[in-house]
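Quarterly update, task 2.4: pyridoxal-5'-phosphate-bound model.
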Amino acid sequence: MIQTLATPKQVPLYVTLADELQALVEQGTLRPGHRVPSVRRMALQRDVSISTVIQAYTLLENRGVLEARPQSGYYVRARLPSDAPEPRMARPMAKASYVGVTDLTAEIMMIAAGTHHVPLGEACPDPSLFPNKKLARLLGAVGRDDPMAMGRYAMNSAYDPLTREIARRYLQAGTPLAHDELVITIGCTEALNLSLRAITKPGDTVALESPAYFGFLQIIQSLNLKVLEVPTDPRTGICLDAMRDALEHHDVKAVLVMPSYQNPLGSCMPDEKKEQLYRLLAEFDVPAVEDDIYGDLHFGERRPKPLKAWDTDGRVLLCSSFGKTLAPSLRVGWCAPGRYLERVRRLKFTNTLGSPVVLQKTVSDFLRNGGYDHHLRSLRRAYQNQLHLFSQAVLRHFPEGTRLSRPQGGFILWIELPPGVDTLRLHRDAWKHRINIAPGALFSVKDRYRNCLRLNCGLPWNEAIESAVRTLGELARAQVA
Ligand SMILES: Cc1ncc(COP(=O)(O)O)c(C=O)c1O
């Protein structure tokens, strides 16, 4: 008889099946690289329905126990050695600093633009991972249905159905937001710009995680603000003792944080830590700009709540976009600025008048009818798989003593090479092979990460990628030698 009901203990049958298989993997009966029985065979063997087996295998995939290989089946995933060391935390900064005028970031990111290369330095997923054709069809339909839309100015207007969809998604993630507290922006970049402008003036100090996303440093530089880098744990995010110290001893006017899947560390603050951070902000009466752009890319079952979920007095300005999940080039982003709503609205108006309604409507139609959740599920699986394969290759090819992050979401890996390896030099050497990397120097105003680099794992694994990682490893080894 085919069983689809829950067992007497109310544990769903697929969970029981997944637990049993996981136990076999943990005992070593099923070893890394082993193929598990096909869905059909397992259903027959265990006298359960095919959908039960599919659910069980999907659960094991999400737990990182199995991996699906196209047209081949499910395999036991090789584990990363549990003792592979993780990157170390930096020391606190003695005093805040302006961002220097070096154009290193622009130089490094621009040489890559338009040139054929292996894009390991960008934080850009491969375009093939996005539902491009569906979006193109929706975009065409939006133009056909209302051709006049292109002839009208969109003055500061957020497209209502889009903001409702975004608000609905935050509600599901445990963060109730009213749709009319959202400002639609040109990507997350504009949201960050407007937010920082709303709460600071030139010369103010902004505290942020270290290493920091270089885009933050560039925005801060353009606004003539100072940076105070705060040590950050590669797993659990910004160090709260160091943050308290920063707030006590420096005139911090704003905090800029990525509590979920920080770029470049991939760290994710546990809920309690987010709550403590919020309390600290309230105690020192400091506002925070939160970048939540990777929040939907969690590998665990639950989407991490943004810091905004604890915000009872409107001091958190939440910023994000669909740039990492759907369509970077549509540039649809948003900001939930809390008590700074009117200020951010005015800044949005003076900055760009409004965001293109045609693009907002396209994204909104996709969210409502395009299968966004289904797309996100497969995207998360792809990113998790790719991160795993990249990590293994780094451990295989990079010099002994290399440390690497263990992100539980997103698609970025942070690598600390042995002391003495210079990743700016590695960047130059790698570019001769048409491989781009993001050297550690870009992620700090204090040149603290000379032996580190960030790797983009948003690229489907193939021979060319494996060969590029091998080449990087050889170039790094040559420096060690
Ligand atoms: C942390 C972070 N925030 C913001 C952005 C930019 O987002 P958008 O393309 O939506 O402007 C990026 C892009 O790499 C990013 O990594």
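Highlight for this quarter: Residues 1-7 have pLDDT under 50 and may be disordered.
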